[in-house]
Design a protein that fits this description.
13 strands, 3-stranded antiparallel sheet, TIM Barrel, 8-stranded parallel beta barrel, alpha/beta
Length: 371
């Protein structure tokens, strides 16, 4: 299957019908513009990505209320996935025209209630599109190539249904796009899917701003193979990840921003400390900005402390954020604002009585918000 395959009459007819449906949706949709929407294009800002639990109605009532107050004080960019990470499968029956948007509606309601600016990550895929056939396999899977058109259709339907969403990230960390035979990313397959999604969404939402490739950058302290020239005291970036980024830049049919993510620590367990963390996020951002004028979005970023670290976790997070900012990034999205693991988060679990309380990271994220 070629990268830029010709889209046949079947697909043209499908999206023509979808365009009419979208036009109707857009005509009748009552969209509330968030009070802080004008700040969504700030030079640099830190927003959040919602996970499975996130100040939702099923938590303890007071905890949810307290968590929403915190959420209202950061951002305003708030990212939610199309499927997974708090959203159910919107297209469970491949033979049905019905869609199940209820869980996604609830997340959009949460974003509106906290005066957020919604972002949607167009991931993941209904099981019937994937190799395993399962909605929730052990590892997330990409749609099979024969279902790329259907996934593009679903993405366009979501964009039409939620006209308040301005920003769309296509897929997440190349999930399901690893080529075992070549021992590298299947960046050709990802870019093919991206281009189909881009065209489909733009057809129904010309105003949408769409970004990729959302590669997760790996690095090593002791690099033995696939070593790149992007390196520093923090380690060496994996050339295969850089190849995926450059291929997408050369072959994407269009984009309004560039997406990436990384950890401060290396794959072989090295933690570079605050200075190395700052340098890593700055260096990677500068590597990207040297190759494209697209705004750089850090879709995820992690700066965990090790047992040997003398710096606090907050100091490491600050180093990562300031490194991204000084490297020229536009946006950084904090993964999972509700505490669900040992990773940095903004409020304690709302499922617990007395939850929804701010963590030590709240003042830092507020400092870099665009509220």
């Amino acid at each position: 299957m070629t990268l830029h395959r010709v889209i046949g009459a079947r697909r043209r007819g499908r999206f023509a019908m979808l365009g009419l449906a979208a036009a109707s949706l857009l005509a009748v949709a009552a969209v509330t513009v968030p009070a802080h929407a004008e700040n969504a294009d700030a030079a640099f800002q830190v927003g959040v990505t919602h996970e499975r639990l996130s100040a939702d109605w099923w938590g303890e009532e007071q905890a949810v209320e307290d968590a929403r107050e915190i959420l209202s004080s950061v951002g305003p960019l708030q990212n939610q996935h199309l499927m997974g990470f708090g959203a159910e499968n919107p297209w469970p029956d491949p033979d049905s025209s019905a869609r199940e948007w209820g869980s996604l509606d609830e997340r959009m309601d949460l974003i509106e209630a906290t005066e957020g600016v919604p972002v949607m990550t167009l991931c993941c895929a209904p099981g019937w599109m994937t190799p395993s056939g399962e909605d929730w396999p052990e590892h997330y899977e990409a749609p099979q190539p024969e279902f790329y058109d259907e996934y593009a259709q679903l993405s366009a339907e979501a964009a039409a249904k939620y006209p308040q969403v301005k920003y769309f990230q296509v897929w997440n960390e190349f999930k399901g796009f690893w080529n075992d035979d070549l021992n590298r990313w299947d960046y050709e397959g990802y870019t093919e899917l991206y281009n189909l999604v881009y065209a489909a969404v733009k057809e129904v939402r010309p105003d949408a701003l769409i970004g990729g490739p959302y590669v997760s950058l790996n690095s090593f302290q002791d690099c033995a193979h696939d070593c790149s020239d992007l390196q520093g005291a923090w380690g060496t970036a994996d050339q295969r990840d850089l190849d995926a980024m450059e291929y997408w830049l050369a072959n994407a049919d269009g984009a309004e921003f560039f997406t990436v993510d990384a950890w401060s620590s290396t794959n072989d367990g090295y933690h570079p400390g605050t200075a190395g963390t700052y340098e890593k996020f700055r260096d990677v951002t500068e590597w990207i900005t040297a190759r494209t004028d697209l705004p750089v979005w850090w879709s995820e970023f992690y700066a965990p402390a090790s047992a040997a670290d003398e710096s606090s976790s907050v100091a490491l997070m600050r180093a990562a954020i300031e490194g991204m900012r000084d490297g020229g990034a536009a946006v950084a999205l904090l993964w999972s604002p509700e505490c669900q693991s040992e990773l940095p988060c903004l409020w304690t679990p709302t499922s617990e009585e007395g939850g929804g309380q701010p963590t030590e990271y709240v003042p830092l994220i507020q400092e870099f918000s665009a509220r």
